[in-house]
Amino acid sequence: MVETAGFLERPDGAKLAWRRIEGEGPTVVWLGGFRSDMAGTKAQALADWAASAGRPYVRFDYFGHGESEGDFAHGTITRWREDALAVLDKLVMGQAVLVGSSMGGWLSCLTAAAIPDRIHSLVLIAPAPDFTEKLMAPEMTPADRAALEEAGVWWRPSEYGDPYPISRNLLEDGARWSILPGPVNLDMPVRILQGGADPDVPWRHALELAQAIHGEDVVFTLIKDGDHRLSRPQDIARLIAAIEEVLASPR
User: Fold this and answer.
1) In sequence order, which residues have a C-beta less than 8 Å from that of residue 44 and are 6 or more positions away?
2) Is the pLDDT of residue 216 over 80?
3) Residue 5's pLDDT is what?
4) What pLDDT score was predicted for residue 157?
5) What is the bridge-based pairing of β-strands 190-195 and 218-223?
6) Mean pLDDT, to the nearest integer, of 171-179?
């Protein structure tokens, strides 16, 4: 199958980059993580799988991410949720399987709650619901909070590269979209893959999401030696197996 690409223009004029593969059945839609993009290892592995399996697949970059337009520092959970909904509306026919990684797991839950009839199932990798409020904000020192109050931005250190900007608007907006401790009113198949050695999303945080989801068809898989990215060959194999399992579930 040939992958096509393009840009989806949002009402404010900003353009979102996307790539799509045609196929049969529900469309698998990739929702990446915070500061990641659709060219990452897992997103590309799913493109390869979709092309060989004849499954429809869409991946895209949020506002301020990857090939999409916009200033990352101006992004919010509200904005990125709207990006996901726009992609579902304009690029996906019928039902979708949302595959959300880290922040994409949170956005997948928010998207599914907004349009449940369009969502076949969820496959979440190290999901990070409420991460701005429950995982990120607690890291801040008094000096960080003072800088945020004065300048409206905190430059957060990263193990993956240079420090990056966290705006006061992102933190305040994220708190408005909090879904834990639940209940999370989703009634569709959900599969969660979580690394036991994840330094960014504690496995108990992801388990709290699994327990908060209203539906009964929820399976939580703890990969004891897995990190946050879960991009090793064996992790990719588990991810594809989880997608194939939910695709076999009637909706």
Assistant:
1) none
2) yes
3) 98
4) 85
5) parallel
6) 97
Asked whether the predicted pLDDT for residue 160 surpasses 80, the reply is: no
Annotated active-site residue in 173, 198, 200, 235: 198
The domain that contains 144 carries what CATH number? 3.40.50.1820
Residue 199 CA to residue 228 CA, distance in Å, equals: 7
Q: Which domain holds residue 182?
A: 3-247
Q: For the chain, how many structural domains are there in total?
A: 1
Residue 198 appears among annotated catalytic residues: yes
CA proximity to 72, closest of 81, 61, 82 = 61
- pLDDT averaged over the chain? 96
By C-alpha distance, which of 106, 235, 251 is closest to 179?
A: 106
Structure tokens at 188: 């569709």
- 83 as an active site residue: the answer is no
Integer Cα distance of 134 and 29 in angstroms: 26
Q: Which of 65, 120, 205, 228 is catalytic?
A: 228
Please write the tens of the pLDDT for every residue from 104-156.
999 999 999 999 999 999 999 999 999 999 999 999 999 999 989 999 999 99
User: From the candidates 36, 68, 101, 102, which is the catalytic residue?
Assistant: 102
